[in-house]
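To fix ideas, we reproduce below a protein record of this kind.
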Amino acid sequence: MNPKPLVSVVIPVYNTEKYLAQAIQSVLSQQGYFSLDLIIIDDGSTDKTADIAKGFGNSLTYFYQKQGGISAARNAGVMASKGEFLAFLDADDFWTENKLSLQAKVFDSDPALDIVFGHIQQFISPDIPEKAKAKLVCNSEAMPGYHASTMLVRKQSFLKAGLFDLGLKAGEFIDWYNRAKSIGLKILMLQDLLAMRRLHETNYGIVQRNVYGDYFKMLKFAMERKK
């Protein structure tokens, strides 16, 4: 990576006031030889999301848009980004303290790399009621994280695979990742733990169960690309 490369970090958020500050702080706490371009895309929140984001002042850029879903929010962040590299973080998750530094070192050692992932670990949010915790299934072991929150990607490479599909309300990242593989982007998975994924009562996949059909759409698209 060049001296002080700019990493644009996109956090899409919808009514996640309880967890947003921790997500933002986990980005701002990253240490390394890069600059940060932190972008918050508020996808129509009706809670205190705006106040929390704006409370961080000039350390981030805040945008509000009419609710359009996760793909629309991430795409808006990409379009607003200024960095050579792109990273994403869900507003209810957070990064480990050396996430970007570990990935930056790998890009330094291999200029041909397009994407670097790392491991992710799930946890049940301690603030939710015990009855709600009992309904959640959580594998707490760190696992390879082919997930938006662990990825660092060259912006130019990201755009080669295209933006997130606005027609998908779930599985949009898997769809994007399959496109990235299909065009031959060079991808590396680190063994390091880079992100923590929070399970709670209002996870999108739990609340919006009607979007599960989009996973089948995504799988269909992937199969068609292989033909």
About this structure: The chain has one domain: 6-226. The longest strand covers residues 187-199.
